[in-house]
Design brief:
Elements: E1 4-6, E2 9-11, E3 18-22, E4 29-34, H1 38-55, H2 60-76, H3 78-89, H4 93-113, E5 121-122, E6 129-137, E7 140-144, H5 150-163, E8 167-171, H6 178-183, E9 195-197, H7 202-211, E10 217-221, H8 224-235, E11 240-244, E12 249-253, H9 259-271, E13 281-287, H10 288-303, H11 323-338, E14 342-345, E15 361-364, H12 371-374, E16 381-387, H13 390-397, E17 402-403, E18 405-409, H14 413-422, E19 427-430, E20 445-446, E21 449-450, H15 455-460, E22 463-471
Parallel strand pairs: 7-8, 7-10, 8-9, 10-11, 12-13, 12-18, 13-16, 15-16, 18-19
Antiparallel strand pairs: 1-2, 3-4, 5-6, 6-22, 11-21, 14-15, 17-20
This protein binds nicotinamide-adenine-dinucleotide.
Nicotinamide-adenine-dinucleotide (NAD) binds next to helix 7 and helix 8.
């Protein structure tokens, strides 16, 4: 049975319970992991707290070396880690291999920028004074990760957090923790306690981490409801929080778009990872002039996608993560059709399959108040609305309380820049939806989150600024007491 990682040692959990991890394609049990409890969390937090005293003093160069070493070890084991990710999360093998490479690249990126700067020098307000800032780690960071990208979203937290001098406790998603535990072998040459892992449920292990008084910061990616709960709990200790939450992202196909590109691009942006991506294009707006052609071609393209066991290298779309998620999508699709959506393809489970497979689905005539546009549909469902023109498309794209990402297809610079200026979104993709860049900050506007990951912002998210004021001449100041000697002008 897999164990919990504390101080770089695989320890038996203090909880006697365990939880099975199931393959969503075959419904077979792969393994089981400890159902971590508050005591496990306390052990891990104490290990991180002790380790942080020395870790924050490690020089930038030494830290960079260690982070590059982690990246190298991840690459050495990439096939094994990717296979496990596919087995437990249902991600097509090719996507899992990509993910593992992105994780390694993220450790390389923060190895590089982690030693670049630690503050800045400021112009002083008086003579013989020096002012500067230093950026300090928060201390112990809880990294709480969702099921859809267990490794990648872990790396976006752990790599910058430790580069900034924090130590961490990771809480992997309960349904897909095995690839994180396997990848953790790449952490074994770090000083003990810098990275710790507690598996288990959100309600027990996750919440114990959020409530622990010695956790200084919570870096959370997941659903809005849990994000709100964490925000409330964090208020008790004014803990620092970074929240990466859900979204109902728009994708607009303008009338000048090249449909040979926009059609497969849209299908990828909506069906990638069985539609379980925070930035999936969940509201598709197509300008009337090209709508019939676009919809016809999208349906034909969707029919060609291979849904099946993700371990088969030719599979495009694997299963959804669980029956619970699948049933939710089934309910949403049924309700969306009742509310006027027109089903053109899919809308059902894949016949003859054991696992949680749902056909990629295309629904048109979706009105702005249809639940397919107002609730996050975390499954492979392309919901489409026809719009009159560019103006209406941009107005509707903004018609949401969320603001995670937005994508457009157009060849017009004017249209692209106008949409970019007007649409509220933390990421804006023009003619290439959903691609990430380690150097580009990622996060949500409006109710899609708080703070940013990746880029230099993603390093600053894990450190706080101290302003240092220094006067190199020790002298009495004429503005001190007594005021009676100070003339009033
Ligand atoms: P979730 O909120 O159910 O769970 C996320 C993590 O939080 C899991 O590890 C879970 O165990 C833990 N958790 C649950 N309850 C907790 C509690 N009370 N205290 C502490 N931790 C708790 O999310 P999910 O279903 O795993 O992921 C899907 C959601 O994540 C979607 O809404 C998606 O849009 C969002 N997401 C956002 C981003 C982003 O970067 N903005 C990326 C991926 C996913």
């Amino acid at each position: 049975m897999a164990k919990i990682l504390i101080r770089n040692e695989w320890q038996e959990s203090l909880s006697r319970r365990s939880r099975p991890v199931t393959n969503p394609s075959t419904l077979e049990k792969i393994d089981e992991v400890p159902e971590g409890n508050a005591e496990d969390v306390d052990h891990a937090v104490r290990a991180a707290r002790e380790a942080q005293i020395n870790w924050k003093m490690v020089t930038g160069l030494e830290k960079a070396d260690l982070l590059h070493h982690v990246a190298r070890k991840i690459r050495e084991d990439r096939r094994e880690i990717a296979k496990l990710l596919t087995l437990e999360a249902g991600k097509p093998l090719i996507e899992s291999l990509d993910c593992v490479e992105w994780v390694a690249a993220c450790f390389d990126y923060y190895a590089e920028i982690g030693r670049h700067e630690r503050g800045s020098s400021l112009p002083p307000v008086g003579r013989h004074q020096v002012n500067f800032t230093i950026k300090e780690p928060y201390g112990v960071v809880a990294c709480i990760v969702p099921f859809n990208f267990p490794l990648l979203l872990m790396s976006w937290k752990v790599a910058p957090a430790i580069a900034a001098g924090n130590c961490v406790v990771i809480k992997p998603p309960e349904v897909a923790p095995l690839s994180t535990l396997r990848l953790a072998k790449s952490f074994e040459d770090l000083p003990p306690g810098v990275i710790n892992i507690v598996t288990g449920s959100g309600e027990e292990a996750g919440e114990a981490l959020v409530r622990h008084p010695d956790v200084n910061m919570i870096a959370f990616t997941g659903s809005n409801n849990i994000g709100k709960r964490i925000m409330r709990l964090a208020a008790d200790h004014i803990k620092k929080i970074n929240l990466e939450l859900g979204g109902i992202d728009p994708l607009i196909v303008f009338e000048d778009a090249d449909l040979d590109v926009a059609v497969p691009g849209t299908a990828w942006a909506r069906f990638l990872n069985a539609g379980q991506v925070c930035t999936s294009s969940k509201r598709i707006y197509v300008v009337e002039k090209v709508a019939d052609e676009f919809i016809h071609r999208l349906v034909e393209h969707t029919k060609t996608l291979r849904v099946g066991n993700p371990i088969d290298p030719e599979t495009d779309i694997g299963p959804m993560i669980s029956e619970e998620q699948l049933k939710r999508v089934e309910r949403q699709v049924a309700e969306g059709i009742k509310q006027g959506g027109k089903l053109l393809y899919g809308g059902k489970r894949v016949p003859g399959q054991n696992g949680w497979f749902y056909l990629p689905t295309v629904i048109t005539d979706v009105q702005p108040d249809n639940l397919l546009f107002t609730e996050e549909v975390f499954g492979p469902v392309a919901a489409i609305a026809r719009v009159k023109d560019a103006e209406e498309a941009i107005r509707l794209a903004n018609d949401s309380p969320y603001g995670l990402g937005a994508s457009i297809y157009t060849k017009s610079l004017e249209t692209a820049m106008k949409a970019m200026e007007e649409i509220k979104a933390g990421s804006f993709w023009i003619n290439d939806p959903l691609s990430d860049n380690d150097a580009g900050p990622f996060g949500g506007m409006r109710q899609s989150g708080l703070g940013r990951e990746l880029g230099t912002e993603g390093l600053d998210a894990f450190r706080e600024t101290k302003h240092v004021h220094l006067d190199y001449m020790m002298e009495k100041k004429d503005y001190w007491f007594p005021y009676k000697d100070r003339p009033i002008h």
